[in-house]
Amino acid sequence: METMQFEALKVALKQDKTGYVLTLCMHPDDIPTDLLRDFVGARYQVVMVRLDGHEKPITDDHDGDKAIRASGILCRDQRFWQFLHDDMQILTPKEQDATEWLREYLGVHSRTELKSDMNARKMLEKITKEYRAWSEKT
Q1: What per-residue confidence (pLDDT) applies to 50?
Q2: For labelling alongside 135, which of 14, 24, 32, 104 has CA 20 to 30 A away?
Q3: pTM surpassing 0.70?
Q4: What number of CA atoms fall less than 13 Å from residue 41's CA on the CB side?
């Protein structure tokens, strides 16, 4: 069986004793004829992507956004600079040195890469934990 692709609008969501019932509205020209012919109760595997106003998928990557913010906050934190300096990672405890070190450590050219680079986010979590442990001792 071929996959069916069509655009639809969410018009209702309700709950009954078996679960949630999602109601979609489709333009008559867009509804696949196979869908019309299938019996009520037919099972489907559904994949849906929300579209923006330009027909592009909307990505909702909260973890990436949080990582971008966290890395910026970290690099402006004077105690983080001192942590890197004490660990002999940077020569002078300055924001610019901490920022350059963090980019190199994470393997990114820009903090915005944290949005899509899961490995860099894991490395950020690791260094943040190390920093917090150091911070609690001092």
Answers
A1: 86
A2: 104
A3: no
A4: 0
